[in-house]
């Protein structure tokens, strides 16, 4: 994990797998992927907190797993 340095102006998107309850929300920054080659992921309840920087394949694996659990 790393602080959100350099991500202040990033457009974050809430994962569709987060549901509507608002308690377990994951956000990612798709536009940042092309610029950096990594997928930033954060907890929407803590937007100033740390963000994970995942390799695109790791993010794809995570999303596939989440879809399997739904």
From TrEMBL:
Q: Which domain of life is it from?
A: Bacteria
User: Do you know which InterPro entries this protein is assigned to?
Assistant: DUF397
**What Pfam families does this protein's entry cite?**
DUF397
Tell me which residues make up the DUF397 domain.
Answer: 11-66
Q: What is this protein called?
A: DUF397 domain-containing protein
């Amino acid at each position: 994990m790393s602080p959100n340095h350099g991500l202040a102006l990033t457009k974050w998107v809430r994962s569709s797998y987060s549901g509507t309850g608002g308690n377990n929300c994951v956000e990612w920054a798709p536009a940042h992927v092309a610029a950096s080659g990594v997928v930033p992921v954060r907890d929407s309840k803590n937007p100033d907190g740390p963000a994970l920087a995942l390799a695109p394949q790791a993010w794809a694996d995570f999303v596939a797993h989440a879809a399997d659990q739904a």
